[in-house]
Amino acid sequence: MTVYQATTSAPVNIACIKYWGKRDTKLILPTNSSLSVTLDQDHLRSTTTSRADPSFKKDRLWLNGEEEEIKEGGRLATCIKEMRGLRRQLEDQDASLPKISGYPVHISSRNNFPTAAGLASSASGFAALVASLAALYQLPTDASRLSLIARQGSGSACRSLFGGFVAWQMGEKADGSDSYAVQVAPREHWPDIHALICVVSDDKKGTSSTSGMQRTVETSTLLQHRIKHVVPERMQKISEAILARDFDTFARITMQDSNQFHAVALDTDPPIFYMNDVSRSIIALIVEYNRVAVANGGKLKAAYTYDAGPNAVIYAPKENIKEIVELIVKYFPQAEAFKDPFGLFGTQGVKGRVVEGFNEAVAKPFSVGAVKGLIHTRVGDGPRTLGAEEALLAEDGLPKKL
Amino acid sequence: MTVYQATTSAPVNIACIKYWGKRDTKLILPTNSSLSVTLDQDHLRSTTTSRADPSFKKDRLWLNGEEEEIKEGGRLATCIKEMRGLRRQLEDQDASLPKISGYPVHISSRNNFPTAAGLASSASGFAALVASLAALYQLPTDASRLSLIARQGSGSACRSLFGGFVAWQMGEKADGSDSYAVQVAPREHWPDIHALICVVSDDKKGTSSTSGMQRTVETSTLLQHRIKHVVPERMQKISEAILARDFDTFARITMQDSNQFHAVALDTDPPIFYMNDVSRSIIALIVEYNRVAVANGGKLKAAYTYDAGPNAVIYAPKENIKEIVELIVKYFPQAEAFKDPFGLFGTQGVKGRVVEGFNEAVAKPFSVGAVKGLIHTRVGDGPRTLGAEEALLAEDGLPKKL
Q: Does some domain include residue B401?
């Protein structure tokens, strides 16, 4: 008997132009366009197996081995329903196709990074879900078309359906049919963009991005100006910078837009803070690192960006990552040795040091644990279809024990 | 022989609508109007003695006993020159007046609060300087007229020439002649407004407000919107709230404008941070304290505001101050007993506790020293002319030894 099953993985993406605010909370239509870099699935990914089987009683989903309820009308149910609808259209057009759209599905999904890392897993998770259902249902794979559906699971998930540099065009229509992701450039266009994720310790439970962004829409008097007059120009300029591989402009806009996102969060009533003193110190280090570079006649060498949490993501050309790791470790000593996936440090390991001319007084050293870990990765590709040996469902249709 | 000398004190003021940005850096003309509460000189003040004497060799000034250079064309020189010019006009009109405008002056000024408290002393300092010269020169005392001159010493000093609730009208003219302070209401109108200053420890030297605000003017894409579209309406509404003694509206606008000032500082390139994790936690405490009040059918009970530093100033009706001190001390234990100038606590002292229904998880307790001290004060009066016994210059024209 045929097993209808597919396994895919999807990447994390970190925005340079931030998504913050919905004009339609049900369809997840944003108040502004956004742009992100897709990170390499070799390091960070969500993997999802979907199986359709007439013997299943109902649709079920497991996340990291724990079953999640698929609430009627909820985001998971919406994505599954939309994908099933596309399958049904195919079946209606081609009578030779097996009628698997009528079967219940079992879905098992895992992230290869710990939740404690504070990395948003909803983007890679919903992208992997949609990609895996697209493979299961053998849908013609137009990533922009799929991004319309992933968007309804989690807004930023739509950008994880592409590799490289990805724009989410906000669109104008009330039904959301023009609010989807497009690829600005594939990773092969600019593979030199690397990323260092600084996982920052935080005691406080922050405001969720879903509730936080709507409070900003309702109460910030600055957000409307950002939406109408700042983001459109930045989208244009950063896209041009990516096409021209102009890191200086890319970095400048990325940092400005991270700051502005946190500024409108602070302009919210009551105010929302995602960055803490550790985040602020990392900003001070990167500002000083860039200042030295520019003072020596060069250009910007790194760009920080912060999502809705205290973690820093530092984008930089590969050649600068070694200096940046040394810099961060100097101020934020690590409990564990740096995992060096690109072999930058050989056998010597990281010493912790600053570049010549660096003003060490811009921040004070923290104790071990303030930055819990460092992850070195780079721009990556879009969702991958994996072989049966990587499936997360066992023969019985339940999640494999790991 | 007649001694021409006068001693005055002037108050600190803390803005509710923040001044941030100059359209003319020499004349100190702001990009937006601002509004502040003058604090009681019984607790915080600058005191200045000015003497004019033909035996003096040149103008000299001492601040807290240390001589400061009066740089030609600098802010001190400008204020002294302008005041002397007003005196000369009087002398020209009335030949019976002694010609003291031609004498050099010696000026001694002291703040009764330590510099380490992190309270901006330039506002009270320049207000006391101008008020003391006005008394020395026996100028007709129109505080708005004097505020034009104090403004050229330090922008916010113009607001310290009035007691109560004070607006600095930005004006439009290029010569600055319509950029002065006016009193919205005297302290007697609403004497119930008290203030608790939380002096926050900070390791980092922050960006000076003079350089910081101009970087914001040059690089923030949000500041122009604030200036044109947000501040004018807030100035109108908070003035109405003061006249109506409407603390709820007063508090709401005060907190929103503090947040927006820090938001445009963050939208600056590179970003400027004045608040730290302690500041953020105090905000969380006041937000929760207000939430409980509103949940119980009441109105806002306190308003935080932050200037260009990590210190919190909490405005509240007098009846709430006891609860607020208990709340702050619960999370920020104090090394020294609370100085209780209004006798709120009797002999029991402060225990540190929260009001009923307060969610204690909104912040975590800090260790002793995170908040270095608490100062309880209230809305106060304008500059005071003091008796000769309070003079800060000795007979020899040099600062008295304290």
A: no
